[in-house]
Amino acid sequence: MKLICSKSNLLNGVNIVAKAVPNKTTMSILECILIDATGSEIKLLANDMELGIETVVEGEILEKGQIALDAKIFLDIVRKLPDNDITIVTDSSLKTNITCEKAKFTIIGKSGDDFSYLPSIERIDSIVLSQFTLKEVIRQTIFSIADNDNNKLMTGELFEIDGDIMKVVSLDGHRISIRKIILKNHYPSRKVVVPGKTLNEISKILSGDMDKDVSIFFTGKHIVFEFDKTVVVSRLIEGEYFKIDQMLSSDYETKVTVNKKELLECIDRATLLVKEGDKKPIIISISDGNMELKINSTVGSMDEEIDIIKQGKDIMIGFNPKFMIDALKVIDDEEIDIYLVNPKAPCFIRDIKEKYIYLILPVNFTTVA
């Protein structure tokens, strides 16, 4: 095999597919990136058997062939080569020469025949949305997935399609994030649970361009994202997702309208007094026209007041400040509505059209207040 491509094109391609290379594996071939130049295009491929990514790199194929190279070494080499054309040449013994200007590396590759290609998936059932929308939806929900495997379903996000509405849901047992998107077309109803790892990696690759689309294809066990010259294939998480609707109540005793930026900055200041791993709640007292926020920790205490518009009863309630910050950070509205029932019931932050809903469970603060 012999091919030439620019450093910027090659580095971009390697960075994209490297996201599907596992950190730990007993199969050394999975630690590799496959360079496939057997056809008319240069393809790069990585696959950890749960997540696979393939992308096309612009360049010139002088001799067709393929080789699997250790992903970490290959990425480090390409990253540190000069900004010029890179030539990659392999011989029958899998010896691979990578040259750029006066720099020349020789590494031993593995046979491409041993590589696990992406599963062959019939791409017929798809939805289309902009790269910007998908990237935003992931950003606005991914923070509330669970980061351990105690419940596999909590490590993923529900993608539910119904007509021209796509609902994306994540939860970790303490909070729920929901975003609703209006799609350009109507689609058949379906529900799938996509691994959080897949969505995290995709959000890093997406350009976030409003004018560029991403097509999403579904099968019984896989989901495929296709955009630009990249294909991402991921296994789905199997099982019945949680019945979210039963957890969502429209009843409330207190409704607060508050400036989002003010509230976010206030809670952010309060966390200055909370050490890493310290579970100190922020205590919020709501009365007519006023929200008082307090935090007490071993470091010190803080007390601040914010102007609000209140409907309903006065209330005092405690929250994990991080959970409040996570939700507020991803809401774009200038003013937000917070709905509360009592100090032991979840609070809801939602807009009138329910394009977003953030549910946060309160914490017991009797020992702290």
Major beta sheet summary:
8 strands, antiparallel
Q: How many β-strand stretches?
A: 24
Share of residues in helices: 10-25%
Give the terminus-to-terminus CA distance.
70 Å
Shape: elongated
List low-pLDDT spans. Answer: none
The SS-based structural class is alpha+beta
How large a portion of the residues is in β-strands, by DSSP E?
A: 35-45%
Rg, alpha carbons = 25 Å
Give the SSE string. EHEEEEEHEEEEHEEHEEEEHEEEEEHEEE
- The neighbouring-strand order within the major sheet is 6-2-3-4-15-14-13-10
What is the average of the pLDDT values? 94
Contiguous helical run count: 6
List keywords for this structure.
369 residues; alpha+beta; 8-stranded antiparallel beta sheet; 7-stranded antiparallel beta sheet; elongated
Structure description:
- With 369 residues, the chain is an alpha+beta fold.
- 16% of the residues lie in helices and 44% in strands.
- The strands form four sheets. Strands 6-2-3-4-15-14-13-10 form an eight-stranded antiparallel β-sheet. A seven-stranded antiparallel β-sheet has the order 11-12-24-23-22-16-20. Strands 5-1-7-8-9 form a five-stranded antiparallel β-sheet.
- It is elongated and about 80 Å long.
